[in-house]
Write a structure and sequence with these properties.
The structure is a single chain. The chain has 260 residues and is of the alpha/beta class. Helix content is 31%, strand content 16%. The chain contains eight helices and ten strands. The strands form two sheets. Strands 1-10-9-6-2-3-5 form a seven-stranded parallel sheet, sandwiched between helices. Strands 4-8-7 form a three-stranded antiparallel sheet. The protein is globular.
């Protein structure tokens, strides 16, 4: 796994945007795996700015989001459908029919999960998967103890994740307990992964992901097995890494053609 440590959140977002730019330039009809939460908001602002400057074109791209809360209609302000519309989709030219998120109101959740997996497959698979990192080491909503080969399915949130996300619902008591999430196995099939983490709150999860054992107790640790995974973090999120100096040295000494 490549670890890139940047000074602050702004530099992380700018760096991550370059991965999307390179991907869309190389393959305009790319399939993008998208994430929600506070971490990717700065990246989405960068992508919108690049689109407005005519440096990015999403007209042939497709997207699949990682997850959605169960029971929330798309129009609910706390839904990830609403989040994506507000923070990205309403500002760029990604065709509506190419935007995919799990349906939190599905009446047959297992069948919907199977059809979500099939849609990813029939779109050609995910080219570039964006991931945030939960403070408990989750990716998507694959909480600790998730099978490392899991597929899209229903999951129950941990009390910690419910507390982390309470800000979006005006209190913990309003956060749905269940979600539909791509599985760890689904994520691992993406051709490339870019993981972002910001702030000291993520430092322990970052260290477990990068330098801990591969374990379902930290689902993100399976990304050590991914052939093309880049983690971009700020200094605060890097503060518990044992080999931080080595990762900085590697980045500083990259050949020019490899730099983002
Ligand atoms: P956050 O969530 O970006 O809101 O910190 C990350 C995640 O849970 O994946």
């Amino acid at each position: 796994m490549e670890v890139i440590i940047r000074s602050d959140a702004g530099a992380v977002s700018k760096g991550a945007a370059q991965y999307f730019k390179q991907q869309l330039e190389a393959k305009p009809a790319s399939v993008l795996g998208l994430a929600t939460g506070s971490t990717p908001v700065g990246l989405y602002r960068e992508l919108i700015a690049l689109y407005q400057a005519r440096l990015l074109d999403f007209s042939r791209a497709a997207s699949f989001n990682l997850d959605e809360y169960l029971g929330l209609p798309a129009a609910h302000p706390g839904s990830y459908h609403s989040f994506m519309k507000e923070n990205l989709f309403s500002h760029i030219n990604l065709p509506l029919e190419n935007q995919h998120l799990p349906d939190g109101t599905s009446s047959d959740v297992p069948a919907h999960c199977i059809s979500y997996e099939e849609s990813i497959k029939s779109a050609g698979g995910i080219d570039l998967q964006l991931l945030g990192l939960g403070s408990d080491g989750h990716i998507g909503f694959n909480e600790p103890s998730s099978s490392l080969s899991s597929r899209t399915r229903i999951k129950t949130l941990t009390p910690r994740t419910i507390s982390d996300n309470a800000q979006y619902f005006g209190g913990e008591e309003n956060v749905p307990h269940h979600v539909i999430t791509m599985g760890v196995g689904t994520i691992m099939e993406a051709r490339q992964c870019v993981v972002l983490a910001l702030g000291a709150k993520k430092a322990a999860a970052v260290a477990a992901m990068v330098e801990g054992p591969i374990t379902a107790s930290c689902p993100a640790s399976i990304l050590q097995m991914h052939p093309r995974c880049t983690l971009i973090i700020d200094e605060a999120a890097a503060s518990a890494l044992l080999r931080g100096d080595y990762y900085r040295w590697v980045y500083d000494n990259k050949p020019l053609w490899q730099k983002i």
